[in-house]
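hey team, just a heads up i'm posting the complex here instead of the shared drive bc the drive is being weird again. everything in one block, sequence lines first with there labels, then the predicted structure for the whole assembly after. its two chains so it's a bit long, scroll down
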Amino acid sequence: MAIERIHFWGIAAVPLFYVLAALSVMVFLTGVYLRVSVWLSARGGHKLGISAEGMARVVTDGLLGRRIFRGDILAGLMHSLIMWGFLGLFVGTALSTVDHWFVHYLNGETYRIFSLCMEVFGVMLIAGLVVALVRRYVVRVSRLKTEGPDLWILVLLAVAAITGFFVEGTRLAVQTPYWESFSFGGVVLSHLIASPAWAQAFYPYIWWFHAVICLGLIAYFPFSRLFHSLAAPVSIYRAPQPGVRWARTAAADQEAVADGEAPRGPRFSFGDLIDLSACTRCGRCDEVCPSASAMEPFSPREFIAGANAYTRAAANPLARIKWLRERLPRAFSVAPKISPEQIWYCTTCRACLEICPVCVGAYRSIGQVRAAEIEDGSRVSPLLVKALETLYRFGNPWESSKRKRSEWPAGLAVPDLTEGAHADLCYFVGCTTSFDTRAQKLARAFVRIMTHAGISFGTLGQRETCCGDIARRVGEEGLFEEQMDKTAGLLERYGVTDLVTSSPHCFNLIKNEYPPWSREQEAAALNGGAPGSAAPVRVRHYTQVLAELVDAGLLGRAAAINRRVTYHDPCYLGRYNQIYDAPRRVIRAIPGVTLVEMEHWGPDSLCCGGGGGRMWQELEGEKRLSEVRIKEAAAVGAEILVTGCPYCLIMLEDAAKTADLEGGLKVMDLNELVAESLALGGEEE
Amino acid sequence: MKPLDIVVCVKNVPFTQDVDLVLEASKRDVRKDNLVYVINEWDNYAVEEAIRIKEQWGGSVTAVTVGNEDDEEVLRRCLAMGADEAVRVEPGGLQPDAFITAALLAAVVRSLPHDLVLTGVQSDDLSHGIVGGLVAEHLGLRHAAVVNGLTPGDGSVDIAIELEGGQEEICRMALPALLSIQTGISEPRYVSIMGIRKAAKKEIEVLDARALGVATGDLEPALTVEELYLPSDGEAATMLQGDAASVADQIIHIMRDKGVCNG
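-- predicted structure starts here --
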């Protein structure tokens, strides 16, 4: 007997197998069509574009599973074993089919190596599944929330793999050619079967059982969570990059809305819909979500699951077939709803995207649901309504006055670019920094430093208006656009080419979400294009300006501050724009300061709880997000907690008071710390 | 239940909360050039109530205002909230006080189908609180004021009327009727910029005040302002000194002295 791959040994009804296989593939393709048609139901662009970086991410984060290994090596190992085992067996089966029907090449040593590989893949798959089952059902890893289908998938895969070995073992119990020794699994099993006659009689049953399980798996694949193996590479490929423009939600819809034809309910973008279907409910987002961790009634994972169910039902092409609708009314009448209360808890801190193995950020889809809630208007919280109406009327979400915007300098000389002053640098103070008495101090400290350093700068005075960040974050796209047009108009009118902001929120919005908004840029953004390309205005956050000044020797003769200092990374500076080093460089340059890091820092930083429009809502869980954060600072023995954002400053100082840490822990803005070391006549306490 | 045709009377008023007001040199009016105009707070609740009734039981909502072209903003807001039609009465050279406004509104409402007419209890700027009653009188409609609960029935409405001392009067009133709506009857919805832009495309019917057939006598001001003045700064505020515990003690003493609390 020659060394070769044996096909359909002892199976009579081969045509029946192919009929079943064809059926299974048809169901698979229909399922994929149903899922992809949900993606294509999105308004606006459906382009994936070509991105080398995207492809590189698919290799490192997808195939090599970098993001799965991160923080959970066992999960990474489990996933790699299952994925490579599955892929290997899939490719092997395809190669075997080629061998059977087209080119006979699986013979001799080639076949022995092939069969050895198949054995290894089979063992890998089973090992991975055992790890998965143990993690889910024995160890019960806390972030894994188990539902019925989870067990089904794991068991089906395991049965497929194990019966595969039994099929081989049974065959080898009948005919044991010496060269099959590479099929070690089958050989071991064949020794367990004493009677070749029994094996021969039993073989067709086990073969058909294995075949039906495998074909069933293929058919079930697109309807199950296994669909992530097709969706995740796409979501990873399109992953939003820090500092890259975030496509407008409303632009594509605006005309439709104006015509009064847009349907009610959230209008997810192409990217959102891909994201929703890529989620595997691993729960890492829930672990890092500041809201979920504080026991608030919000979970990014459950939001994604709910939104996914909603979109799959809302965009189901089968529902358009009248014949089906009439016969299966229950299947199509059940309309899953996205509960509108939960969406306001999200601080848009981006921690979920940072941790997600498949690059899904719940905050993006949440933005679309918020936009729909704002358009409906009837369930928006009264506090938020007040903030938005104040913003609409007075250009800021805080006070019913435009005039009071320029009261913060309290006697300090600040050139006003709108009153004829000329300067190279425009300081965009921002609403919170202008109106909040605590945050005003950071602006005064910044002005003192700039004056000390001899920098030519000025502000837009009373004419400055809200950049539109709060409107954008809560989904009030129309108001965002009005504020954007006003602010962009001001910058143009007063010839501003170099801008520095107090707030990471203004910084991120103006840099990454403002015009010029050409179609090319929108396309580039969708394709993960160049960060902040072609902006006519250079936009920086003040920490970057301070870092430059420090590099140039600003703190040469500064007084020592012999304190233990820790730094809180604001979300929109850190995760959104990857600015982790500049503020730390400034802190380290201050003589005497010891910089210590909290448990969560850099990309893992915890949100203060003020972002995403939460500054204007009363939402509270069992713990306050800001108190969780301030306790981390106290835990590392910090005497000063420094931050670079007015929201963080207000939230954290407030938390220091309520958590009774005020005596031992001082909350400061980076400007205040620098001004103190330069002895620039800091603020009276 | 038979769907209702509802007319809501609204007014564009200057926003004055937390705003430092300045008087005109004539001392007969407040300087309004720097003020921001908004929908009268009470009217906002009246519109919300009308829209909710329409959303639940069907029917139509028409918003009516007396004002110049700038005041159409308030009508566009009503359209964005869900009103079907909007009518503006152009006062021309008239100076509409509460009496003239009521006569003009009554003339417009008379020409519209109206099972139910809603107004706010009062306006934020003049605060007379009489337009609702006057319109009802002009049209011979049943009237209830300070309504803080409303459920339509067949040919009637069940209403709750706010009385003194936190009491409420619950009654059933036959339709057609006019109700002056109190704030807090429900939570008015948020009106998005996109919603207002969308409403900007709808047509607003403009009627000339003098072409409504209102008797000339009813278009003469019944009130003239002689002089306005800002209240002088009072001595009512006492700054409490000391730490939190002693301040709390002082507050309790003050509350006891004033009879706010016992014990």
